[in-house]
Structures are given as structure tokens and as C-alpha cells.
Amino acid sequence: MLSEAERRSLEEIEQRLLADEPRLARTMNRQVRPWLFYSLLFVFGGLTVLLTVISAFGPAFQCLLVTAGVLVLRKYPLRLR
What we know:
Pfam families: DUF3040
Keywords: Membrane, Transmembrane, Transmembrane helix
Radius of gyration: 20 Å
Largest sheet: none
Order of helices and strands: HHHH
Number of strands: 0
Protein name: DUF3040 domain-containing protein
Organism: Lentzea waywayandensis
Number of domains: 2
Structural class: mainly alpha
Transmembrane segments: 35-53
Number of helices: 4
Helix content: over 70%
């Protein structure tokens, strides 16, 4: 637990960081879940291959779209404010 003075100092530092380096501050606040990214790639990538092998091209294409969407969102994350 932080004391009240330490909490105020920390808030002041965070405000200065946000004003001086907003991109760095956003990056530090982002919740990174690499296990979710890799599990989605593994599951839907695997399903794409499996469904293609058994000639279920419709569902395979849908899984391919999900896999591509995960890759695109990893590269260009949504910025919700």
C-alpha cells in the first residue's frame, strides 16, 4: 500500500509522462495477453488445416478469416477511447 503522499507523487509522474510521451504511456497501460494470441492462432490455424484436408472449404475459409483477423489485430490493435 502506498501512502497518500506517495500516491500523489505517482499520479503526478504519470500525468507528466502522459503529457511528455503519450505513446509510451499508452503502450505501458496496454493489457498484453500473448497466451490469448497464440492460442487463437493455434486453434483456428489448426482448424483451417484440418477442415481443408477433409474438404470442408466453407468452414475452413471462415477459420482462415478468423486467423487472418487475429494477425491483423495483433499488428494494428484497436484504440478504444
